[in-house]
Amino acid sequence: MADLYNIIMHRRSIRRYSEKQIEEDVLEKILEAGMYAPSAGGRQGVLFAVCQNKEMNERLGRIKRAHSRPRMADATHYVSKEQPSIADDATLTNAFYDAPTVITFFAPKNFLFSKEDCALAAENMMLVADANGVGSCYIGQGWTAFDDPYGQDVLKQWNIPGGYYAVMQLLLGYPRDGDAHPTAKPRKGDRIIRWK
Asked: Is position 89 within any domain?
């Protein structure tokens, strides 16, 4: 249990990656952790589309960036100063931050708990990634990466069923050489409400 606690305390979102691809055996562990995540009603409805094609990831990341309209950060409201997000830095053109592995989570369009199922799978996967020295970053609004003819063609290539949509992406890779591990932001102490 101590190891799990330490992994939870250590995990951070990584937005700068080296070009080194993650090893296949590590990727399999990460995917298996996602497959074993809780799902509403035990449906196991989430599909994991793993893409390690550099050109495809870059193009989909650029499409996602072009179709994302995050409220840009200011001096007091930002995502990260250590590793800026696309909301923090308007010059970033790839919403996937050049991660060598991008997993898109697809889930049924008309299922009440599709987003929750994806989030639970992603958390399992991020913890196993961190335990294996792999960086990760959860990126919401997955559908924006497919919001043009190229993206629609990719969905056909991947044989994504018509009743599914891209909920989010999980970026995986090794942190860029020389980058310090991001520090945790101070925890807000007033978020726990106890009633006895």
From this structure: yes
